[in-house]
């Protein structure tokens, strides 16, 4: 269907790939980029998505969700072995087999993003999300691990949670199983060091999810820093890296002034922050929200467009207080709201450095950031001189 001409055409017509960097569109987006003060990054973990995002004008990766990398058929069985091991030694053996895969993923990502910033988030979802559900798959895993079907079932049942979104996930995985964080840190840093040798520029930004207190972040940061020192000693050289945290629990937003003391950046995870602030599941609220919107309780879907009055208050507070503690703190958002124009307008007012969204939303986010800069922001010149001061 050609909406421009009002034609319905029978059969396939030849098409060309949209190019946002040339022609009138490219020229217009050039003006957009001159105006906006917020950067636009993308949420991506595969080289294909990262490349797509760059073609759309992204200026880095604001969130690489590492868990997606474990679902590949070649790795899932080692991941499951790691989860089902009942001791540290078993977990470490399985993690050692996952390390080369994870390292290769990061190398590909760094190569694609050559020189642009990359935020890599440590493992976040509850572990039982990786486990098989059918008896046949469980039996296969049991055979591989030298266990009985019942043993595998029992361990799997013991990981079951009534409220997994509020359960054993995020930084809680690193706190309870430091070896997972060690493996991921090693993969992130060794990949970066090897890429540097190829001439690829990279300063990895390691992101800790679901933090609620400075103490939690300090414990995980210590695992990262200790692992880094070990790697640097082994290799006789070092590399720069940054450690930051997601702000996706109300407590984290309320403790921002303390947390900022241990973080080089904040990534607002507004999906979880909305879920936990509203006390409403991000996955099951469709019907409730339709009713709530029809009664005017929420004007828009708060999971699509930020609830400025409630969740927004937490974001704004965390920005202000976080920067009071650490004026260098880099602030970004990587929840769904990072690609929503109305939310982007609000993030501009909060003084965020960047928004991060899915690759296909990058052009819209660039435009929305420019519109927000016109409405509420400063010119790029004023913004730069503020930063320099
Ligand atoms: C978030 O919670 O906003 C976020 C980006 O993390 P995830 O969606 O992976 O939970
Ligand atoms: Mg989250």
Helix content: 40-55%
Largest sheet, described in full? Answer: 8 strands, parallel, barrel
Give the spatial strand order of the biggest sheet. 1-2-3-4-5-6-7-8
Give the structural class: alpha/beta
Q: Which CATH class applies here? A: Alpha Beta
Task: Note poorly predicted spans.
Answer: none
CATH architecture: Alpha-Beta Barrel
Number of helices: 17
Number of domain modules: 1
Number of strands: 8
Written account of the structure:
With 389 residues, the protein is an alpha/beta fold. It is 53% helix and 10% strand. The chain has a single domain (35-380), classed as TIM Barrel (Alpha-Beta Barrel), CATH 3.20.20.60. It has helices at 23-35, 47-55, 73-84, 88-113, 135-145, 149-158, 171-176, 178-197, 214-235, 250-254, 256-259, 270-278, 286-294, 311-325, 341-350, 362-376, 380-388, and strands at residues 39-43, 61-65, 118-121, 204-208, 242-247, 265-268, 330-333, 354-357. It has an eight-stranded parallel β-barrel, surrounded by six helices. Helix 1 (23-35) crosses helix 16 (362-376), helix 2 (47-55) runs parallel beside helix 4 and helix 3 runs antiparallel to helix 4. It is globular. Bound molecules: phosphoenolpyruvate (PEP) and magnesium ion. Phosphoenolpyruvate binds at residues 63, 65, 124, 248, 269-272, 334-335.
List the helices and strands and how they pair.
Elements: H1 23-35, E1 39-43, H2 47-55, E2 61-65, H3 73-84, H4 88-113, E3 118-121, H5 135-145, H6 149-158, H7 171-176, H8 178-197, E4 204-208, H9 214-235, E5 242-247, H10 250-254, H11 256-259, E6 265-268, H12 270-278, H13 286-294, H14 311-325, E7 330-333, H15 341-350, E8 354-357, H16 362-376, H17 380-388
Parallel strand pairs: 1-2, 1-8, 2-3, 3-4, 4-5, 5-6, 6-7, 7-8
Magnesium ion binds at residues 209, 248, 269, 271-272.
């Amino acid at each position: 269907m050609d909406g421009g001409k009002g034609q319905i055409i029978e059969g396939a017509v030849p098409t060309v790939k949209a190019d946002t960097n040339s022609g009138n569109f490219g020229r217009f987006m050039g003006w957009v980029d001159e105006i906006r003060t917020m950067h636009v990054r993308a949420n991506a973990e595969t080289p294909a998505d990262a490349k797509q995002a760059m073609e759309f004008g992204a200026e880095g990766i604001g969130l690489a969700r590492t868990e997606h990398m474990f679902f590949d058929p070649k790795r899932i069985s080692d991941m499951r072995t790691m989860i089902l091991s009942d001791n540290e030694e078993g977990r470490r053996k399985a993690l050692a087999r996952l390390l080369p895969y994870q390292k290769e993923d990061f190398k590909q990502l760094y190569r694609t993003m050559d020189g642009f910033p990359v935020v890599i988030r440590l493992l976040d979802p509850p572990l039982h999300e990786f486990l098989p559900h059918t008896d046949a798959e469980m039996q296969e895993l049991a055979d591989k691990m030298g266990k009985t079907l019942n043993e595998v079932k029992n361990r799997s049942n013991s990981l079951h949670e009534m409220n997994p979104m509020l359960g054993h996930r995020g930084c809680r995985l690193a706190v309870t199983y430091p070896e997972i964080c060690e493996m991921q840190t090693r993969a992130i840093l060794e990949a970066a060091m090897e890429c540097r040798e190829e001439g690829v520029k990279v300063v990895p930004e390691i992101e800790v999810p679901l933090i609620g207190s400075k103490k939690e972040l300090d414990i995980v940061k210590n695992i990262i820093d200790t692992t880094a020192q070990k790697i640097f000693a082994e290799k006789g050289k070092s590399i720069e890296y940054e450690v930051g945290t997601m702000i996706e629990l109300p407590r984290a937003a309320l403790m921002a002034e303390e947390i900022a003391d241990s973080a080089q950046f904040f990534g607002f995870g507004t999906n979880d922050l909305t879920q936990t602030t509203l006390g409403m599941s991000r996955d099951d609220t469709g019907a409730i929200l339709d009713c709530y919107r029809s009664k005017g309780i929420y004007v828009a879907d708060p999971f699509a467009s930020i609830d400025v009055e409630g969740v927004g208050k937490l974001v704004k507070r965390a920005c202000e207080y976080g920067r009071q503690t650490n004026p260098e703190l880099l602030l970004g958002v990587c929840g769904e709201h990072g690609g929503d124009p109305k939310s982007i307008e609000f993030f501009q007012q909060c003084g965020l450095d960047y928004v991060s969204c899915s690759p296909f939303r990058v052009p819209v986010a660039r435009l929305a950031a420019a519109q927000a800069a016109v409405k509420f922001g400063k010119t790029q010149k004023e913004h730069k001189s503020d930063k320099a001061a």
